[in-house]
Specification:
Elements (H helix, E strand, L loop, with lengths): L1 H15 L1 H12 L6 H12 L5 H40 L1 H4 L3 H11 L4 H11 L5 H10 L4 H25 L4 H31 L2 H10 L1
Helix pairs in contact: 1-2, 1-3, 2-3, 2-4, 3-4, 3-9, 3-10, 4-8, 4-9, 7-9
Amino acid sequence: MFGEITTWILELIQSHGILAVILGVIIETVIVPLPSPLIVMTAGYILIPNGTLFEILFSALWISVVAGIAQTVGSYLLYFIGYYGGKPIINKFEWLHGVSWSEIKQFQKKFSKGKKEDLTLITLRAIPIVPLSVISGVAGVIKLKFKRYSIATLIGVIPRNFILALSGFFFSGFYESIAQNIDHGESIMTVFIVLIILSYIVAKKFGLIDKVRKSILK
């Protein structure tokens, strides 16, 4: 299956160049099941020329910026779903998960102090195994300001893409295997994040968090 996807992306980029990269990363960012690192790595493999070091780095940067803009635009769907749908869903199912919207607001206020949220988002976006779609949704739920979200997302995905594009170029013989391993790592990270959220919800539901707080304050 992974090999078939690779062949399809390879042919698409060979035929349409950077336009295929733009379309591919937008589709992938909107949570269609395409391996997220594969598109940019394939772009690096095909579109970076065998020239001088400057030409190689400039081409990788060009791919990174263009793909980064497309990823930022593509992430808006999940961001706005979280932004406008997060509060109604949390309020409606508070009886089930035990987390109130006021607690989300408190977390938002703590998270939004200074520039910490920007740096955190940039860092998470820059790490290849951190799923872009999950972070987009969470940023929307906590109502991260749109402008700051957009800037931090773009700044974060550019170095991520730069590394992936260069990896596709320099490891042309087996970049598909690298992309597959990164994709597996991203899937594991997604499960890990979901488990953390579920663990918090269960602990909140059964009052374990309040008990821990009381024991700490004693």
